[in-house]
Amino acid sequence: MKVTHLAWMAVAAMLLVAPMAMAAGGKTHAKGTTVVGEIKSVDVDKGTITITVKGKEKGATEEKTLAVTTATTVKIEKAPAAEGEKPKTEDGKLTDLVAGQRVVVKCTEDGKTALEILVLVKGAHKGGKK
Asked: Which of 75, 85, 89, 117 sits in a 20 to 30 Å window from 101, CA-based?
């Protein structure tokens, strides 16, 4: 009986904590956060990328500016991935990034520096709607 109760408590805790972590500006992972949005601007000279992400309120957007270093990798998706598979990508450069592209950015734990930028295929990843 106690084990079942503990299991339900653990499930309830996960259901409460996960949405809070996502509302904090991205999905939290042990190695950092993930930011999903659209590129607003790229400043190669300053080493920054600004991404427009969904805001906390419905219909709202926020801008998140991330530092980009020489260690930041850029991957460009070539075709949408089949369900459960990794997308086929090719290596890119910071100069390949342009405003309007949808991206998934893996960041450092503090969420201030981009570690990997994945440019999504245009028209794919519309939140599961077909």
From this structure: 85
